[in-house]
From TrEMBL, chains A, B:
<dbReference type="GO" id="GO:0030170">
    <property type="term" value="F:pyridoxal phosphate binding"/>
</dbReference>
<dbReference type="InterPro" id="IPR015422">
    <property type="entry name" value="PyrdxlP-dep_Trfase_small"/>
</dbReference>
<dbReference type="InterPro" id="IPR004839">
    <property type="entry name" value="Aminotransferase_I/II_large"/>
</dbReference>
<protein>
    <submittedName>
        <fullName>Class I and II aminotransferase</fullName>
    </submittedName>
</protein>
<dbReference type="GO" id="GO:0008483">
    <property type="term" value="F:transaminase activity"/>
</dbReference>
<keyword id="KW-0032">Aminotransferase</keyword>
<feature type="domain" description="Aminotransferase class I/classII large">
    <location>
        <begin position="55"/>
        <end position="358"/>
    </location>
</feature>
<dbReference type="InterPro" id="IPR015424">
    <property type="entry name" value="PyrdxlP-dep_Trfase"/>
</dbReference>
<dbReference type="Pfam" id="PF00155">
    <property type="entry name" value="Aminotran_1_2"/>
</dbReference>
<keyword id="KW-0808">Transferase</keyword>
<dbReference type="InterPro" id="IPR015421">
    <property type="entry name" value="PyrdxlP-dep_Trfase_major"/>
</dbReference>
């Protein structure tokens, strides 16, 4: 099998300037450091509490801090998972058991597609542009599953509330389960309208994945929350209980404390840091940004004609700079991504500047060779 | 779908005396508490190291502390997972892609079977007694997968090195991939011969799951290690990279420190505590132990004729004592487990004594009713 994005990201973990994976690797803020300094007390605290109390409390803090108040409705089922990928894999397993066809947004992070494809699902590509505007008649597979991502990675595209309403109506009409991966929600205020309230207006089956893994430099101490409506036809509860008993109460409490810190300025700081790094990246690479409006913690640049992303990726790896080639995000039509590279902004500014300068130097050298 | 073991365990997390799940919930030792007191320093330390360095170091400490020295051979592939269940689910997904039939030991923890069955695999039952002795001719499915557990849960049965050698030879001859779940290895010295050295003597494809999740009361901070031989036909590396980038470096380092503590007396303390709790349980329930030689952190009792485990489970739940009914471990032939209940010993002694006394009182009352 060819390498997937994660394979390339693993290589980047080993050495050099890693602008490859989207995992947060920036420095901690002062108040975040204070939470970590209190880890022993956090551990002692959660030891004494029933797991379901800790779980509900973490989820309430996290989702309400992102405007998702209707997610806390008693009717809605939820589970805390090791990660959003764990949640997505459970969804894929449940879809296979239910025998439903799937349509999924393209481009998007390839592991979303691959996690589902590993279950042998039939997956049709839906262009992100077609999700964002235009007629919806042909998009929700009747009796199937529509899997979308908002904000989407790598484009940063956010579905507006009105458009989500139209998509929900189309799915409800066709008996399509609407699955939404919202893992980057905290990074973009435009994604923080009450999505659960919007969906709740329809006789619709839906699943939403929320996640803390993209936000805080917590060394993979994270939780994915899997949420679904009462009566959902996918056997999610069973797929979950086959896999796990509960997320770690310790991690859940850390998530709660980071979410509270987020609510009191931490999220603003997170978003400011990302936007500053985005400006630095754009200043230090002489290439046009592919998605100018993106607010998530990655940025994507369009390469000059004649430079193929995959070849550039290999060259840059040799000089110790790790980025991601655009082909991999186009899981159905890789040729649409050959002129794109994605870099991660969830780093300290120096790493972003150093990495971008090396990319730019490399491209300058290439330009000189081509011109000569 | 009927409830599985984890569903029942979730109910037990909420209230009462929980002798249901096998997750470790006993008090920490002094030296373990010291590691937790140093969590902030552990976090700061692993922030500075490459992930693969932390990962290799944790695995080396853990596996060598359990006698699995040949596991560290350069030729052997490994990955650190969120949990052993994550590893097993990846194996199931890989088996489905490879299209192999599976044979699995019975009885065993039902989620092992259910995780694989959720992938739509054909699974044949192999009696644990047939694995332990007798002819092996009909056991490894030719071109398939044989999935065994040693030490097994709930029986505590350990495959001796000589018998493992015979099973490995039979699998090698038939092109069967041998999968071994060794998650309870630390609890039984009889399981700590160098299993990887034994398997390495054969032209055999194998997978071994090691796990820290059953050992230490770390609130689900744990790691499953997925190990396999070079050239293994199951696409494990890809299933892994679709799902995750790496385990948490923080958790890996905690695992390393707990393993080092284990090597210097912690494992002896763990095993002593389990054996003391086993003696207390047997003293406080007037029922014969079903598996007298077991050394793992659960114990199983045989019910008097006329008491069905499922009915007893329900009755005990009403008085706030949570155990597990034996039916669930016999995933193919539940009728073989109707006279068994399993309790967890990974608790503080008071919980074991209180829970067992309540079970016994309940059975005494039942006996009086029946005799009268």
């Amino acid at each position: 099998m060819p390498d997937n994005i994660t394979d390339l990201e693993v290589r980047a973990l080993v050495d050099g300037v890693n602008l490859s994976d989207g995992h947060p690797r920036m420095s901690l803020s002062t108040s975040q450091s204070e939470i970590i300094a209190a880890f022993p007390e956090v551990f002692a605290h959660t030891r004494k509490l029933p797991v379901d109390v800790v779980e509900k409390s973490a989820r309430a803090a996290f989702l309400s801090s992102l405007g998702q108040h209707s997610a806390l409705d008693e009717e809605i089922s939820f589970r805390s998972c090791y990660s959003s990928s764990t949640a997505i894999d459970m969804i894929g397993k449940a879809i296979r058991l239910a025998g439903r066809p799937v349509a999924m947004v393209e481009p998007t992070f390839d592991n979303l597609h691959d996690l589902l494809a590993g279950h042998g699902l039939r997956i049709r590509s839906v262009a992100e542009t077609a999700l964002a505007s235009g007629p919806l008649d042909d998009i929700p597979p009747p009796g199937g599953v529509l899997f979308i991502v908002s904000p989407n990675n790598p484009t940063g595209t956010v579905l507006a509330a009105e458009r989500l309403r139209d998509i929900a109506a189309a799915c409800a009409e066709r008996g399509t389960v609407l699955v939404i991966d919202s893992c980057f929600r905290a990074q973009d205020l435009r994604a923080q309208y009450d999505m659960y309230a919007v969906l709740g207006d329809f006789a619709l089956d839906w699943v939403i994945i929320e996640d803390t893994g993209k936000l805080w430099p917590l060394q993979e101490l994270k939780t994915g929350f899997l949420n679904w409506n009462a009566g959902n036809p996918l056997p999610l509860a069973r797929m979950y209980s086959d896999h796990m008993l509960s997320a770690s109460p310790f991690i859940l409490r850390v998530v709660e404390l980071f979410a509270e810190d987020g609510r009191h300025g931490g999220y603003d700081q997170l978003r400011d840091g990302i936007q500053r790094n985005r400006a630095l990246a754009r200043d230090n690479i002489n290439l046009p940004p592919a998605y100018p409006d993106s607010r998530i913690s990655v940025d994507t640049f369009r390469l000059p004609a004649g430079v193929a992303a995959n070849a550039l990726y290999t060259d840059l790896g040799e000089v110790g700079v790790h980025v991601l080639p655009g082909e991999l995000f186009y899981w159905e039509q890789p040729n649409l991504g050959t002129d794109l590279i994605r870099i991660s902004l969830a780093r300290d500014p120096e790493a972003v500047v150093t990495g971008c300068q090396r990319v730019d130097q490399h491209l300058e050298a290439w330009r000189r060779v081509v011109i000569r």
